[in-house]
Amino acid sequence: MDAGADALHIDVMDGHFVPNLSWGPPVIKKLRQRSDAFFDVHLMVSDPLAYVGPMADAGADGFTFHVEAATDPCDVVDAVRAASRPMVVGVALRPDTPVEALDALWRDGAFLPDLVLVMTVPPGFGGQAFMADQMPKVEALRRRFPTMDIQVDGGLNLATVEVAARAGANCIVAGSAVFKSDRPAEVISALRDGVETLALHKPARKRGGMVSSWRPRAESFEHPP
């Protein structure tokens, strides 16, 4: 975080939804004791509803779950809204999932999540190549939601950030590009500059008791152990 990232993106994997197994609420709770960073938790798990309470108790600030994993995604959103800790609600799409899967997250004319994460690699593994063929999803989402956070995760680096930003992404999750660099602060700064030049700027608003800056973000990605 000292290198200038706006948030810490933490991947939680259960060994079922994706093959890998990573840390869970106990480790995040320990991290919370040592950091006041925004913990943007990405749940790559088969039962996201079961993680809502434990993640709130652990100190998560963002709770992003996969629409493919939820029997009723609206139930997950409702549970996050009712959790003991305010959390930003995000919903993620795998590369093989169409944008239309998000239709299940509308209620009474309103889209329930705060953020949509478009995976630009198959979830579960780091160091994969950016999938530019996912940009039509980002473009479609930006047309439909002009003032919503649209996040991209997978293969983001100095060569691909412009493609994502031009499509409409304003939240960039970078892993290998940051952690494998000898100058991570410079990489984060360059990623942010790339997004700020091209992405949509939006006014600040209050969300669930938490203030979100609504500005283009560069997030550092915490690799699984």
UniProtKB/TrEMBL annotation:
Cofactor entry: Zn(2+); Mn(2+); Fe(2+)
Its EC number(s): 5.1.3.1
CDD domains referenced in this protein's UniProt entry, alphabetically: RPE (cd00429)
Superkingdom, taxonomy of origin: Eukaryota
InterPro entries: Aldolase_TIM (IPR013785), Ribul_P_3_epim-like (IPR000056), RibuloseP-bd_barrel (IPR011060)
Organism: Pelagomonas calceolata
Name of the protein in its database record: ribulose-phosphate 3-epimerase
Catalytic activity: D-ribulose 5-phosphate = D-xylulose 5-phosphate
Subunit structure: Homodimer.
